[in-house]
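--- STAGE predict ---
source: upstream dedup step, 1 unique chain passed
mode: sequence only
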Amino acid sequence: MIAIFDKEKLLNALVPIMYTVSGKNTMACIEGILIECNQEENKCKLTSYDLEKGMRTIIDCEVIERGKCIINANKLFQIVKTMPKGPIKITVDTSFKTVIESESGLSHFDIKALSASEFPTLPELRADRGFKIPQYLFKKFVNRILFAIGQNDSRPVFNGAYFEIIKNKMTIVSCDGNRLAHLEYEADFENTNDDRNNPLYLLFIVPGKTLSELLKLVKDTEEPMEIRVANRQVIFNVGAYTLFSKKIESAYIDYERILPKQSNIEFYLNAEQLRGAFERSALIIEDNLAGTLRPYVKFTIDEVLSISTLSSNGNVYDEIEIEKLKGEDLVIAFNCKFFLDALKVCDQGKMKLSFVNPLTGVLIEPQNTDEGKFTYFVMPMRMTH
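--- STAGE serialize ---
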């Protein structure tokens, strides 16, 4: 294989491709990028795959001799990054000795590639169902629910976000057992089903790690991205890149049963003031030693909302004016981080808090619903004093 690349184009293509390169040092083939050069079209296909998720893109280049191989991703990226500006020539011989050199030949590296036959078999990426959504909207929605996805939870469904697209309504839910984020949005999504007469009906769970990598690709633009769903894979087409990932194959939790349908106490308050109070509480809370109780943030609700936190570092107290809609007084406590994570993704302005009792938790509803309806539910903590 012999091909000549523009340094900037190759470097820009490699950055996203690196997102799905395995870093576990278990198999040399998945620590590399599959490079396939087509002489007839002067195109190069770059593919990375960590056995759970992968990415593919195609870039222009001058192909002198067609071929394909696997080159270690980190080595290739660092080499290209440090090469001088201008064309970069990559030559791979039949023994997979690889020479990467500048146009002048004054800068060059000799490394070893692997046979393309060692690259793991890629999943079937054919999907007959899908839709398009503006990139900025998808990015905003996923950022709203990402915080409530579990991290390496033993229950697989908690490690992903549930997507439900039925006709013109999208629902996204995430839950880690301690808090739940719920989003609803209605729009005329562009139906890209192979059979356009078949209305949108998509239910799937995307791993949180995949969504985190996807957000690095998605831009704040009205340009659309396409989401397609196959039997075992979900495929995201964003600009020149295709990111594909295994779905979480499990039924999602009955989230509607978790969200309270009625409440005994409701009030409005300023979202910025509440967030500020929690940020001040976070300053004095530390993770205690194993076996001891973690400090909590205590709500005392009467004519105002009193927020107090006591830890070995000290204590903090805040009062916030509220616009009470209904209910009696209440004392309830929350994990500071769980509550603050929800506040960080809420728009400024008014928000509504609803409570059933000290054991059920709080439903948080930002008042600004111009781009969908957002609700967050946070479980309470047991108070010891």
